[in-house]
């Protein structure tokens, strides 16, 4: 696993370091608390999967497309420094993602993320929401600096869909009747949409043709679905120290995810009623029984299989890219999405 991760980052190591530098640079604010909370959340040990996706796709397209090679020299200025546009886009994507995390933790009243206290737990809800708003607005400032209206349209549309997904999930808290189709709509909006937007925007910025843009958009969407499905598995089967939060948090918050939906589909009636009761009541009082039902129905195996199907679909969308280290890293990213334990 360690070798796979290092191999995935290797083709864009220099770009990734520049993106990290730009992320920290763009947290500057005249209000000290904004910088303090911003740095706390962006330095909290996240994988930076979404900006990594931008950089790998940009690099893979340079090996594939003459247009991408011509745009490779395009850059933009931040203060006295110049950055490749792909690094700017990676930073925008990370800021959008970080803003959603700050808001999510307030909505969910979460106290732990990535193994340490959430910003709202360490400071307060109001500060977390407002710093999240700052990161959203800073990301749009950077979009303007990039100067690509098509990219702006993709990302502006994505932020709307993500917000709708959050509301859709909120309206279904403690709803044991949530269907699998509605669940998939929620996770596509909440999670897969930003993967999709990152991949599509990277293709647009690199000058890829429309067919390639569509393939990479679908690659990002399928990868994001696989990633979220495994997150939902790990909520019931992960190691709390590795995943950085308590196992069973989703159920405790009244969130209905596919492991529960599938367990209810397979379980005998008396067990279905027990799961429905646990969903309605929230908390962790019935966690032991729910975990038993999930194990006995092999619900997690079903979800893992579905995640692998999405990852396979994502990998198939890479066929139009020329063979390169970056393309191989993107394929490895598909495998990592479904084999990870955190």
From TrEMBL:
It comes from the Bacteria. PROSITE patterns: POLYPRENYL_SYNTHASE_1 (PS00723), POLYPRENYL_SYNTHASE_2 (PS00444). Its cofactor is Mg(2+). InterPro entries: Isoprenoid_synthase_dom_sf (IPR008949), Polyprenyl_synt (IPR000092), Polyprenyl_synt_CS (IPR033749). Coiled coil: none annotated. The keyword Metal-binding applies. Transmembrane segments: none annotated. Keywords: Magnesium, Metal-binding, Transferase. The keyword Metal-binding applies. Belongs to the FPP/GGPP synthase family. This is Polyprenyl synthetase family protein. It comes from Allohahella marinimesophila.
